[in-house]
Amino acid sequence: MKSIAMIPARYAASRFPGKLMQDLKGKPVILRTYEAAVNTALFNEVYVVTDSTIIYDVITNAGGKAIMSKKEHDCGSDRIAEAVTDLEVDIIVNVQGDEPFTDKESLASVLEVFKNDSSKEIDLASLMTKITDWEEINNPNTVKVIVDTNNFALYFSRSPIPYPRDEKVDAPYFKHKGIYAFRKSALLDFPRLPMQPLEAKEKIEAIRYLEYGKKLKMIETSVTGIEIDTPEDLERAKKAWK
Question: What is the pTM of this model?
Answer without folding.
Answer: 0.88
